[in-house]
Amino acid sequence: MNFWDILLIIIKFAGAVVVFIYGMKLMSEGLQKVAGNKMRTIMGRMTSNPLRCIATGAAVTAAIQSSTATTVMVVSFVNSGLLTLASAIAVVMGANIGTTFTSWIILLGLKGSTATFALPLIVFALASPLLLTRGDKAKSISEFIIGFGILLVGLQLLCHTLPALALTPPILQTLTLWSSHGIWSILLFIAIGAALTVLIQASSAVMAITLIMTANGWISFDIAVAIVMGQNIGTTLTANIAARMANSAGKKAARAHFVFNIVGTLLTLLILYPELNLIASLTQLCSGHAPIFNFRLLPVSLVPLAITIFNTFFNIINTLILSFFIPQFIKIVNLMVKTPPEEQEDEFRLRFISGGFTNTAELNLQAAQNEIENFSKRILRMFSFLPGLRTAASDDEFHNTLQHIEKYENIADRMEMEISKYLTKTAADLSAEGSRHVSSMLRIVDNLESIGDIIYQIAMTRKNKREAAVHFDQDLNDNLHHMAHLVQNALDIMDNNIRHDDHHIDLPAAYHAEQQINSFRDTLRARHLDALKLGVYDFAIGNAYSSLYALYEKLGDYIINVSEAIDDSVKAASVLGSAEPNPTAKQSTITNR
Fold first, then answer.
1. Which of 13, 253, 388, 583 is the most buried (most CB within 10 A)?
2. Tens of pLDDT along 34-72?
3. Within the chain, which residue ranges are assigned CATH 1.20.58.220?
């Protein structure tokens, strides 16, 4: 066999791998489009129960046929504060279990000639009336069917091209040489499996190649197991790449995926040969034969099944064992990834009401008040990120600032939900006047969350403006800067009102700040209409500009709502008899803006 023959075989083999990977990608994307939103909703609602998180990770990965998609979702959820690090680690463990479902699909595909029904599947999906007459969901189902058919074709091509590749003398000699050094060969092929997975970014393709090689007897059971363990390590790289632009929490989730597979591999190596003997016996029993206790006696025809059983066994047992050590995993990744000081307060946590209820309703209200003050502080910090979107010198800087705002918006949503839930339960133990106090506090929390929503909308408007390459001149930037300054003043007054105890809130100052915002908005709107008539700037610039100053004015509305709700809360507290009403506060109430 000359050089050109070997080169042709290598090209055919590479083409088969590409077809297989494309089929798997198409199949996975089709499933994700059908179920992706539901999967994200399920993951976003998870609790801290480790078993529930593991089951969710396994189910989501099995459903969308992509551990990569699951781990990337996990990284994004941790990055945005929707998942704690402990929950994320549990989900990743479950994802490792769910991904074993793919190896069973590949194993079944190796049985018989898959091309006999693969091509009819593709034709059916292309010609299906669903594709022509129904909506996006039907198209996604057809995409899945086409992907599955292409995957089977790629698998069949691998079955034809891999034997020719393996029969070339250099490859056979290399496999024989590298496989004959005991535990050193195991370690070598773990590294090879990891490297191959990193190189082609498809653990399923590495699994398919491994199963075909074992089915033809080119590598032994223990060597194949080493490749599978390496493949499990290599597949963690995708999550770490996805976390490159994430904050420290997202990076920690990705590192946890890597550490889990490393630790699982080390544990398996400690009992490797007894475990292989056990897997060989289970394989024999599943095939209707008497069990054997020496994996080297396992028939070649049963090795692919044994590999698939091992892959499932490896991930399930490791998860069952290591799920008890999630706190230790957190300590390890905390050492691997340091949290910068500026991110210390970027995590979602309730500081005053997380311990549950006391026996005194008034103390419960005080805890809720403390939490509302903390909520206000977070809202002000969220607003402080907005100038960074305008001054960002690079896309990376802009993206990082936007991520901070997105995370704080998610935190605001969760704080509103948790504080409201706490207040609602507290109201059951209060008098009618106390319930009105709670009602006022609920209004405050609801408006704080709405302020967070508007800040996020401003950020997304900035994002759309940047992507559309819309640029403001200095005059427009100065106007928006002044509007932001007025809103910042209103936020500071609101925050001071929230933090003032007794009845010393400054409602007139709050109304004055809102009137300044409204007045300046009216001025900008009048100038804007004149500029459009005169053609000073085009529609794209005008649309982005008017959207921004309108959103800033809307912020002012929610800010004054908070101060008005605080005033109602003070009145309710006065009725409770906790203190004498402050005459100044009563005189400051303004009924009409």
1. 253
2. 655 565 566 655 555 788 888 888 888 887 666 777 777
3. 349-587
